[in-house]
Amino acid sequence: MNIENQVLGLIKLSEYIKEFLAKDSADYNDHDNEFESLLKRSEIENPWFTMENQKFALNEWTQLLTQENINNWIGNYSVSKASKRVGLILAGNIPLVGLHDVISVVVSGHIPLIKLSSKDKRMVPFLLEKWNEFSGGTVPFEFVERLENFDAVIATGSNNTARYLEYYFKDHLNIIRKNRTSAAVLKGDETPEELQLLAEDIFRYFGLGCRNVTRIFIPEDFVIDRLFESFTGFQDIINHHKYANNYDYNRAVYLLNRDLFWDNNFVMLKEDDKLFSPLSVINFSRYPSLDEVKSFLAENEGDIQCIVAKEELGLDSIPFGEAQHPALNTYADNVDTMKFLEVV
Question: Of 49, 89, 152, 342, which sits most exposed with the smallest number of CB within 10 A?
């Protein structure tokens, strides 16, 4: 019965968020004002969490949390008959990035012990309280500063942090996530509309997510200007002070080092084989053969969250513009969280 109430609560939560997002601020009631104030506090505490990006993330969850999507997702897994305590160390690089883990633990029949990221400490508690309210008090969760008395753990951190976490939790069932990023492979005949969708994959959330594209593979005869033309819809990103600081710093470094780079005054393109690029920079390389690209992607599979490309290239890829629209059964680091929770 709990799972039925929890699913119903998720659907009501989705409707609640959708109604809030659809309203003009002049039509807000007290609950709406509370929600809006929460988002404003989040942005003040973490300037990367702009109102636009927070509301984008919230809207994504309204698209995911439908009766059909939830049933299709959890219908592939079994619910635990014995609730276990699952520690969650949440990331905070983009808004609500840890919510999927929390929902997964709850609908698996377990109790999440949640250590929030200091960068995202407002929205997750607020939405969990609402979910519990809409579910008739059937959603268990605890917020903790230190994980104790747990049966398993799911933790996200940098590559350096992950080494510490792997050692610390070596005697427990665990999923330890590390840094990942995403790549795009261009065939060369992409339309302006497709390249504009690629810009969304690059710039949404300022490029801070593991699903943001930081490396592009282009054919040898591809004209770089086509990329800059497709990026213009995001030119206002330079007005964000933290992003601008990164842009100014990286540009200064390249100039001092006399590095070759292309610049359109809000993002730089640099010919570089590295998969990861600094914020405000996109690495690219020209490929003579698609086989070389496939070899690189295979060799760096452990660092790649997703690949954006046309289907006809024959890669394990998603379409342009879809990087920031993961489904409920899309898992971080490509590790099936729900399968893991079945054996906890």
Answer: 342
